[in-house]
Amino acid sequence: MVIANEFDYRRPDTLGEAIQILSEASGSVRILAGGTDVVAWLRDDVIAPDLVVDIKDVPGLHDLTFEDGTLHIGSLVTFTELIESDVIAEHAPLLAEMAGTVASPGIRNRATMVGNICSAVPSCDAGPVLLAYNATVHLAGPSGERTVEMSDWFTGLRRTARTDDEVVTHLTIDPGRHGGVYVKLMRYAGEDLAQASVGIVVSADHDYRIAFGAVAPTPIRSSRIEELLRGKTLDEALIGEAVAMVSGEISPITDIRASAEYRTHMTEVMLKRGLVAATERLEGTGPAYGTRLV
Amino acid sequence: MTPTDTFLFEAESGNKDLESVGTPAVRIDGRDKISGAAQFVDDIDFGPGLLHAAVVESPHAYARIVSIDTSEAEKADGVVRVATGKDFPYKFGMYMEDRYIFAQDYVRFVGEQVAGVVARSHREAVRAAKLVKVEYEVLTPLLDPKAAVEDGAELIHPDLDEYTHVPWFFPKANTNIAHWRKIRKGDTEKAFAEADYVLEDTYTVPRYAHCAIEPHVTVSKLDFADRLTVWTASQSPHTQRHLFAEALAPLGFTHKDVRVITPYVGGGFGGKAGVSMEIIGAALATLVKGRPVKLRFTREQEFYNTYQRQGVVAELKVGVKSDGEITAVEHKLYWDAGAYVEYGANVVNAAGLSATGPYRVPNITNDSLCIYTNLPPGGPYRGFGYSEFHFGLESHMDRIAEAIGMDPVEFRRKNAIIEGDELAYGAAMNPSGMLEAIDRTAAAIDWGVEEESDNPNTVIGKGISLFWKAPAMPPNSSSASFLKFNEDGSINITVSGMELGQGYLTVMAQIAGEVLSVPVDKIRVETPDTDRNPYEWQTVASHVTWSSGLAVEKAAIEARAKIFDVIHQVYGYEDDSLYLEDEKVKCKTDPSFAKSLSEFVIDGIQTEDGTWRGGPIVASGKFMPEFTNANSDPETGQGGHPNVHYTVGATGVILEIDKETGRIWVRKAALAVDAGRAINPDLVKGQITGGLVQGLATVLYEDMRFDDDGKLLNPNFTDYKIPTAFDIPDEIIPIIVEVPQPDGPFGARGVGEHTMIGAAPVIANAVYNALGVRIKSMPITQEKVAMAILEQSGN
User: Fold this and answer.
1) ipTM > 0.95?
2) Is B727 in contact with A192 (Cβ distance < 8 A)?
């Protein structure tokens, strides 16, 4: 493998230094964490930055904790760490379920969940789940720290609310008691990008938060379906009503990975099976997290 | 005349208990590979003088080259040399010389090499390649083989009639048909008219990629004595040497000046047969004398500029009597052979000869058309055309059986070709265990027992398919071997077949070890160097166990004769009273006699007068199938004996399908193949497992997608899906049938390619069995199944 283009490479030791490098940079800049997107894009000339800022040495970005009902996930936490974490298993096993569908073990060992939502491709696995969790993104920039709600995070195809001089430091989630599910359409059981995906979190008071991936330019929440279901107990007829709304909520494309028709059909199937599984999991039954539903 | 009648060499048979052949001997290359000692081309250290090459590629599927400006590239950092078609205006090709080393006036597929850059580092070469400016006049590409044979279609190769080719190709001048293999036997029209049921339909198969784990790589060096050495990841070292010597003959090279060294290879599957990118490296090296040049393809290049498995549109018509007897087959195969067909045209030929499938058919019309298109060159791929036409053929057989109310297994049993039946080209079928293969496969999947799923979302289906395949080789393709003993009675064998992972080296050791009573772990068999190792045509066609195995067997028999001769000279025992056992020479007439090989195979034996007899035992063997010929009538295909023999078998599956998602799980797969004799049953099982999984991948997941401009859209594993460990059947049942091949080493015949041929139709048949949905185009993805179910249910 060869990266033919020239670029500068910086590896700051502190968050302050990282922000300074970013804010002083002229030309295009890329932040490198796990590198599983950035390096592949560099190699394929998808991007040609003037500067790559590697944040792996920045202290404090690797924390994974649960305190006072809040889950804190640093921006350098990898998918493998999510899968192997006792904290995640106890408080947000849905994140491990999602992480287990990302690429292959080798990629998961390097790829970070925050990097996944910063790359912000429509099929990003973390997107629907973090949307359904109502996660909060924490950023640090030259003018200090700020937060962005996940619902405001994705601003377009491969675009986010992060400005070029900001670093995402971590995410926070207040999971509460919930049942969740991540259902992902793949072309086979091996590593694949989602052709469509559904993330669902059901709270104890039957508040349903539903998000879809790979069926619009960004991962999207479905407020209309959420409203339909809010506070209700699911039955076949209600699920049928929800499923009937899917095609109006999404705007999938046809490409070599899947047709729009199949993506729509499968989003309906995944919502149906996902709602049942998430609700059962809330009640402590249902398929174990990590079980494939499609 | 059957092969048996004319076979001049009496192979060792199963008259005695076999010690080595038929045992699951441990692979002799196992420690090399597990320890990391095994070297592949990219592992070899060529020192700091190594140069690196990058290729400038056509972005257009069809265009005229107006100009090429290399001046900026030549000035770039690290660049040593830039070459274009002007430097090498030479044609080359395996069976038809229709390729250039670099494009001349036209480019004919996206990715075709237009220029090459040699630089001090790979990065500098890649950078400089981007600075080569090529001006094109873009032309409209022909991407559909059926459009390319229409009257008035643009001619992709206007000079086709001037091309050199093998005598069994029949190009049609002023068309895009590079070869048309015809079979005309009996009276098909009459047979259809008299048939009780006729089914006609069209099946389509897309292009596929080999996806060997090791991409193509070559290092070439022209030394100051004008000797060209090429290290390649190849299935065909001698054929490569021959093609390099032929293509570069204008530069003064002869065969003795060209040396090909081929270390271990990380998989071939046909993709590393013949010569593809290797010619680029070899040619570039001639411009930078004294410096080795490495050209290593990226995974993307591996997809679009080596060989691809050709796509095919198969129009099939089969007639049967109401009792199930097949009376006629008409099979028209329109092959999308790509921009250059120097190798792929022989795939077309092989398919045309055998497109009836493994059935007894009295009336045959086969047309197999090799059609130029502006897509990457087609070429050999495990199955060599048979996988492609079996998809439609074996789907068709199930449909006919259903239509006439016959069980698909019974229908196949009734029509299966057996020993002595007449083949499409008029010769007789070799001995085969087809009926046993059918019965054992059907039993393994409990054929006839309907199974119901416990899961309300899923249904279960079963399917069966048959397969056959013959090696596709020139009639005079041959194998050779050298064998020498060492002081301790161990043996070195040199051959030029390739260890591709199939276990070839181990099997050669087992054959020699059997003849010479030497255990396999005392035999070393090395990968080829064309200077030192004797000739082998290629490691393709599933022929090396048979052909190279015979050459090794002959060398071992020659060595044994020399051993007996020494004993005879010293002790006076008659040769025919001697035999080898436990690395000793023993005598039937004198049970007290036993002489260890290690006592004399190098140093000889001292006689009573103090002098010595014998000396180093060395031997050679060669094999050429002297009973074959390719001289058939071009209009009927009758009269020749193009194929040495067929290997047959059957595939069966039980699968489960999610009715909503279309997802398919293969719960159980059984595959029976007639190996003649399994020299190493574990390795045969490995072939069955690997081939079956590869075949299932082509039907369930893979296919190459091109855009309307002929650009490959999925030259990567993100979008070209080959199975992972999660995607293989829950259970695979390998079944080895052994009806000996009379002219094979210990009765063996090849099985390597065959194991993937039945996989595609067996899935099609099982999907139909489960759902009542017939899918006639590959692949049968979960999406295609789900959409077909939706269509069936009227949604």
Assistant:
1) yes
2) no
